[in-house]
Specification:
The protein has 337 residues and is of the alpha+beta class. The protein contains 11 helices and 13 strands. The strands form 2 sheets. Strands 2-3-4-5-12-7-10-13 form an 8-stranded antiparallel sheet.
Amino acid sequence: MTITVSKQAYKELFQEAKETTTYLTPKDQSNHWDSICQYPPTLGQGWIRGIRLREGIWLSIYDYQLHDDLVVRGSDYFQGLGFSFFLQGEYTYNDVPHEAGQHLVCGSGNEAPAVRKEFTKQRFLQIDLGLQPGVLRSFMGNDSGELPPELQHLVHSPEQPSNWHLSTTTPVMQSIARQILQCPYQGISRRIDLESKVLQLLVLLVEQEIKLHTERRTILPIPPLKPGTLGRIYYAREILLRHLDCPPSLSGLAQQVKLNEYTLKQGFRKVFGTTVFGYLHEYRLEQARQLLEAQDMKTSEVAQAVGFANRGYFAALFRQKFGLNPKEYRKQGTNDC
């Protein structure tokens, strides 16, 4: 069975659910709060946790399962910036699949038509990070509050339509998201810890957005490809990056993106300047470097997070690329601090 509701009706159900809100910490004079409420019982079972960390920065955590398939039709309006990390479950948004290992970047702007479809028999686990545009300007803007060109696509005027795009959630981002879910502190210590994690995520998100923008501006002319092939090549890359620990074989990847192996190999080299698994190899090592810098993880844990089953093999490849083994690299970073 499928339930179809308008966006307005969907919002009203959530407003009703807020009547069950329990404040886990009392609101203080700065209007910080941490609350939890029931997911709308007519739609499913679970809960939503809302945490306001400071003026213009908030977190939402969704953990629920639907009674029936759900379709929500209407227009989305993003008053601020939104970053949604999909940790478990899958749905479609305007017919584009959204699944674990991805995050959605929503820029501020005017209403944009949207159709969201969710399905039963799966648990949905999602973390949303919300920012008012002024917060991003205060961190990243110049003296006049103007954002650098690489980030201006994130903040539109109310007259412009909202924009959104999917990106791959890196292992470092996934690690920080898990730490948000597992925060062991309470009270003011919890808020400080969560805010520090949010700022770490924001740094990584901004770095990723700048890199994507730079790639679009500096990409070399690509030899002509058949219509639709370029999109399938980029889709192949997304699949690789979302499955670092167990990537598909070349033939399996070709089947998923509906290309033959020869076209995939030749097209990938034309677009990215390297082979399919050469690209994966370099990406894994770069993500390992970031994990060593950002997290207190054992070398074996880092190796596993980026898809290397053999720690010794990983250490040798890391030394070959960066000139130091993983332990030496972390120690050097600690000394530099």
